[in-house]
Amino acid sequence: MTYELPDLPYDYDALEPHIDALTMEIHHSKHHNAYTNNLNAAIDANGIPDMPISDLLRNHSDIAGIRNNGGGWWNHCQFWEAMSPDGGGTPSGDLATAIDAAFGSFEEFKAVFQNAGMTQFGSGWAWLGVKDGVLCVCSSPNQDNPLMDGCCSPILGLDVWEHAYYKKYGPGRATYVEAWWNVVDWNEISRRLSDAL
What we know:
The protein contains 9 helices and 3 strands; from the N terminus they run H-H-H-H-H-E-E-H-E-H-H-H. The chain has helices at residues 21-46, 53-60, 64-81, 93-103, 106-119, 146-149, 166-169, 173-180, 186-196, and strands at residues 124-131, 134-141, 153-159.
């Protein structure tokens, strides 16, 4: 099985002014493409049979080439699809109910999630996931994700690597995180929640 770089579901400039076209182009065509190529090379080098990416990450994350590049491949695939030019606003329906039950309110959830992204030392990710039928928030370093240790089923991940924001926001991670809420596709996250329950 050869993993491929997925096409974005929108143009590079579609998320402006919140995420700029140059960042999107570099992030997708350079960073994600490198993870894709390096993942395939690591699979070949280790003689790993074909399997879904979730199984690959659960069963072979002890191999650095799989952990780093498989994580980078999957993390970015979910990241692109969690954003939309028509995103932003607030979730509704079952997702809103689940957020209120777990965090008290959408604003409280945002505060917890933003804290996970802001306190992740160095490069990494903030995650919203489902554990035992309840929403939870965590973070992970580098290109790690909750699939690797089974701590939850991730349904939303925020990239807080500098390459995700430095061209536009410089060292302003907090400004980037605040802007990112304007492009989150809550319909997609609702679908993921349904799949995870």
